[in-house]
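Example pasted here:
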Amino acid sequence: CKNYSAESVPGWRSDSVAYHTDTGYLHHSSGQGKKFGPVSHVGDKIGCGFIADPSSSKHCIIFFTQNGTIIGHHLQTAVPIDGFYPVVGLVSPQDSVAVRFQETYKQ
């Protein structure tokens, strides 16, 4: 959602998906996450991507990577009406993140 509030936790709002690397839980439109992948550490590289579902233009498959390896399970979900918008949630003002966007996933 392009109007995602700075006070909102990624994955907790409707039409949002987030891998919380501090707990290893996946949140999909809910504050109640499900065990998904490993907890991350300083220096880990986390990726998120989506693949168009060939059987439906209204759905896609979302995946996450850690240090270049696909983790957890794939999540099939509806494509939001206004498209996807990347969001990164940080815990404190001292936290930092570097972001890189690329068109295709290269393992």
In short: The chain is about 0% helix and 35% strand. The two ends are 28 Å apart (CA to CA). The first strand starts at residue 17 and ends at 20.
